[in-house]
Amino acid sequence: MPNLVLVGAQWGDEGKGKIIDVLTEKADVVIRFQGGNNAGHTVKIGTEEFILHLIPSGILHKGKICMIGNGVVVDPLALLQEIEELATKGISIDNNLFVSETCHIIFPYHRKLDLVKEEKMGSLRIGTTGRGIGPAYMDKFSRVGIRLCDLLNKDVFKRKLEANLEEKNLVLQKVYGEEPISFDEIFETYTDYAQKLRKYSANTSLLLNRAIKEGKNILFEGAQGTLLDVDFGTYPFVTSSNPTAGGACTGTGVGPTSIDNVIGIAKAYTTRVGEGPFPTEFPEDLAAKIRKEGLEYGATTQRPRRCGWFDAVIVRHAVSVNGCDSLAVTKMDVLDKLPVIKICTGYKYKGEMIYDFPLNIDVLHESEPVYEECEGWQTSTNEVKRYEDLPVNAQKYLARIEKLAGVKIKIISVGAERGETLLLDSVF
């Protein structure tokens, strides 16, 4: 049976939570493979809205196994709060959630360092969520991180926490002029978290590979988006992990031969949060209009998202580096009222046309988008259930996106709810 990786094809916030929720119906296992609680995946079911930060969106379906892979950095408090919030809404988490024992843990000193470093950078700030994600990954790759399996061993946890705090407090005091962080407070609090998380801890790589051998359908859930990838995004205005398809292997412990399909998610326009270049960004009056129509506010931070026209250059880049087999296009309905819609087909840089995404951010800063205009459809698409019933101009717009991206569109979202989704072909 096929195993599918779902990734963002823009700067994140493309609607991955909803698409994961829709696809989970035919999946057996859903596993998140990178990022942390800086992600926000929103799913609307009837009048109920769920915002998930760590737990895969598949948890909203009964009988599905959900996992948090080793590539994720976990804030225990955030995870426990999410479990509790789901329980209050009637979502059972009982033997269907597993957290990799090798997930790295986020501590208060990670969050503190994230905030003070960003503040110190001033105009050069990245625009992080302040959740401690970057510093936690720094510790992971510096080989001083504390994993879930370490947290569950009191003696090991004590020894590693003492060593970490000795260094972190020195940096906080001498570099940033901040007060030191208490060992006793963290040790006591996180020892309590450990006991609550123990029942979820597992060798998820082993469980996942067993499920693959048994012919189960696996859905690999990425957070953020391709343009936030630490290697292939708009560096340094990126996240601290690999939200591209390659991260699905390193973030879960399965080999690349186990991946059958990759689907990229893109909005019918473009958004991003935080700092960094954004070639197709709207003027503020249009941005405000689309932001209101599309409810473009961060699910995690509630920051207003920057909005712009669909950028075929970045989506082609995403298709290339992820090896996308198809696309899902979301939020088509947000464009319903526009008389004219633009698509960026290339950039002009120093008088020359470029059609491939420049990894050098200085080139991107100096690039101007080149647009072609499409006639809008100016009628509601919310109630449409079949592709053939979409307005003709909406079909033309999607066909143009397909041609420019170089892959077929298999899913179209025309609203926030599960039922407002057009599945043109099976992706499993």
How does this model look, in words?
This protein has two domains: 3-95 and 203-423, Adenylosuccinate Synthetase, Chain A, domain 3 (Alpha-Beta Complex); 104-200, Adenylosuccinate Synthetase, subunit A, domain 2, CATH 1.10.300.10. The mean pLDDT is 93. It contains 13 helices and 20 strands. The strands form five sheets. A ten-stranded mixed sheet has the order 9-7-5-2-10-1-11-15-19-20, with helices on both faces. α3 (108-121) crosses α4 (133-141). With 428 residues, the chain is α/β, with parallel strands linked by helices.
Q: Choose one word for the global shape.
A: globular
SSE-based structural type: alpha/beta
Radius of gyration, Cα only, in angstroms? 22 Å
What proportion of the residues is helical, as a percent range? 25-40%
Write the layout of secondary structure elements.
Blueprint: E1 3-8, H1 16-23, E2 29-32, E3 41-45, E4 48-52, E5 65-68, E6 73-74, H2 76-88, E7 97-100, E8 104-105, H3 108-121, H4 133-141, H5 148-151, H6 154-174, H7 183-197, E9 201-202, H8 204-213, E10 218-221, H9 246-250, E11 261-267, E12 270-272, H10 284-294, E13 306-308, E14 310-311, H11 312-322, E15 326-330, E16 340-349, E17 352-354, H12 361-365, E18 368-375, H13 392-405, E19 408-413, E20 421-423
Parallel strand pairs: 1-10, 1-11, 2-5, 2-10, 5-7, 6-8, 7-9, 11-15, 14-16, 15-19
Antiparallel strand pairs: 3-4, 12-13, 16-17, 16-18, 19-20
Helix pairs in contact: 3-4
